[in-house]
Amino acid sequence: MAGGAAVVVTVLGVLAAVHSQQETIPEDPTTEFYVRLLRSLLANTTHTMQDALTRLQNNTAQEASVRSLQESLRDVKESVGSLERSIDNIRNSVDNGVDRTRVEIRTFRDRVSEELADLRHLLEDKTKGVNHQVAEMVAGDCQDLYDLGRNASGVYHLEKHGRDVLCEMESGDGGWLVVQRRARVAVQVNFDVGWDEYKKGFGDVETEFWIGNDFLHVLTNQKAYQLRIDFHDYEKGPYFASYSTFRVGNEGSDYPLYIGDFSGNTTDAFTYHHGRSFSTKDRDNDLYSIGNCAEEFTGGWWYDRCYDAHLNGLFPVVPDRQDAKFLTWWAHEGERRLPLVLDKVTMRIKPKPV
Question: So what's the pLDDT on residue 118?
Answer without folding.
Answer: 82
